[in-house]
Design brief:
This protein has 366 residues and is an alpha/beta fold. The chain is built from 14 helices and 17 strands. It has an 8-stranded parallel β-sheet. A 4-stranded antiparallel β-sheet has the order 3-2-1-17, with helices on both faces. Strands 4-15-14 form a 3-stranded antiparallel β-sheet, with helices on one face. Strand 9, helix 10 (250-258) and strand 10 form a beta-alpha-beta unit. The two termini are 25 Å apart.
Length: 366
Amino acid sequence: MIIQNIEARRIAVPLKKPFKTALRTVDHLYSVLVKITCDNGMVGWGEASATVVITGDSIQSIEAAILQTIKPQLVGLNLLAHEHVFHTLHQSMVGNSSAKAAVDIALYDLLSQRANLPLYQLLGGYRDELETNYTVSVNSPEEMGEDAAAYLKDGFHVLKIKVGKDDIEEDIVRIQQIRKTVGNQVKIRLDANQGWNVKEAIVSIRKMEDMGLGIELVEQPVKAHDLEGLKRVTDAVDTPIMADESVFSPAQALEVLRNRAADMINIKLMKAGGIFKAQLINQMAEEHGIPCMVGSMVESRLSVSAAAHFAASKRNITRYDFDAPLMLLRDGVEGGVIYEGRKMTMPQAPGLGIRSVSLWEEGEQG
């Protein structure tokens, strides 16, 4: 099963509504699709989204990393010696986690097709259904309340609320408005995207606890590099704290776990460099008694399907943030994970279960 060719194409897909966080506002999905062909004719698909403010990877750098650096080192290798292939991939260059993730996803697609198994079964097969949350972007309290009500009407029982963009009192007003609108029918998770300092985080979370707003967890309240500050917040509040941008690699995960700096970890394939390293992070977290969530950037159903396969395969992964494909104006992917509102069902076809990618034909060839 010799890797014969690696191709890449850029795509751009408009969102139904601008996506706003403490770090950025986007109105399009910009990503690079990857197609790996083996000598037996099998094809594997991957994708990397460009999220400069989080991963540092742009659409141009992702494409260049795949075609100019990774491809020359992988073409000609036998994928059945996959330990060697993945080691070569991750040693090919420093950083560039999104580019590595796209190639990693395509390689796992091929391996599970070769095994004639859906990827989630190859990886562990713990469950075959998931429930995703839906994200409420940062806007005025009134607009966020209206959005939350609409998502509840669409059947979503868990909402992830973006905060941390401006005044902390305004964030509390936003949460109050959402809770007033949806009542106690939904779980509310907060994601500050590094938008608070340590004191702000502690004061605001304690205040929300005292107000009885029922926050399930708070994700990445402080700067990614500030593990000491993250631990201070975790130790000072009752609400569980989740590390996100603080954890890209297994080594970073180990520091969070060793210092008990967070109660949970959010694993994203674009940060970890794909499934190969993501499994290590989850395994270490499980050994430390720390549950994980698997999330996504703004991505299409192609790479989100890979993340969902990984999440479904592991017992320790208990929360899922896979709403990104539902935000796109058009899909362009046939097959993969099946959405029925908040419910996600894993495909039973081999690999990712992708049948066709019309986005590939629309994309700009690299």
